[in-house]
Fold each of these.
Amino acid sequence: MEIISLCGGLGVLALEDWKTKEIHVGVIATLGVLGVLFHLYLGRLDILEVFGGFGIGVLLYGISMLSKGAVGKGDGLCFMATGIYLGFWNNLFLLWSSFLVAGIVGLVYGKIRGLSKKTQLPFLPYVFVCLVLQLALGGGL
């Protein structure tokens, strides 16, 4: 049930980010609350893992504030929610792999389309793809 909740919520956010380059905080908040409820019921991760995973999102949100939007605030909020489900190490791996995939696709797409370095690409679709791959390969939940 956790996997369905996480993939479903992140899938909705990724689609929304792809279409509008914006995401609704209500979906993220719902995803986070469900994650907390799952942990209260299942107790799969210890509290330090959950706070560590959440902290990655807090750090990303802080980077967004310092970079004046170069990184989206919604991305930080999203990683707060995924951190509740995945814990510190799996959420860190998700962030790293998402940056890697987005960077490679951005470079290739930029060369093909002749885009500038200032062109913004939605990030959550890459996060969703990396999450699905991570779960399929046995990492995560």
Note: Residues 73-113 form the longest helix (41 residues).
Amino acid sequence: MHSDRAFGKTLAWVGICWSVVCALSGCDRNHAETEHWPNKPGPKVVVSFAPLYCFAVNVAGDDAHVKNVMTTTGPHDFNPTEQDARLLSQADIMFVIGLGLDEHIAQKMKDGSGNTRLRIVELAARIPSHKLCEGVCTHAHHKDDPDHKHDLDPHVWLSPEHAIYLVQAIRDELKSADPDRAANYDRRAAEYIAKLEKLKADGLALLAGKTNNRLVSFHDSLTYFANCFQLEIRGVLTQNPVKNPMNGK
């Protein structure tokens, strides 16, 4: 019992550290609560949801402008509004995960915005295929298609190791869009990647020697996290993150 409590505390600490890397590294900065953009030079970047905002804003610094579309919900049940489309009408780049998670919504938003020059960048395409896991889909926008499945698990941002690939992809896209400030994007990306590498190393050190490394997750989203920290997922409470596991509603 004591070892179980110790493992639980250690795992919670790893999770807290992962959250801190996001929350204290620029993610409290201006979210996209309006479609207005500052009248300043630099790429105008939109991201689909909060974790990508954290990655993008840390690479962008003051050289690019980053706004987050999904400020009150996640990609599992997001329904874009007219204001979201207006936000995209002036943007240069939109970063999404891809892998069936958010790229279809992004394309619909782009079509509604009328911004034909907007580049939708699927960041997970930069992750080597052998590092991707199989997955399933229960998103609201596929609710009428119960047989729809993700060929690959899109929850890649939950592993520091995979997050590094996403940060590198963001860096490269910003450098391509804004080559005059390429050195700044390189520097900030390197600094943030160092934090992610340290997080992984610290987590593995904290969990080293723990014989009870099993966990149960609420939603089937922690495969990459578990693989990164050498944990074993023994069960999932619900395949659908918007349903109550006690009654299925």
Note: The domain at 2-130+153-210 is CATH 3.40.50.1980 (Rossmann fold).
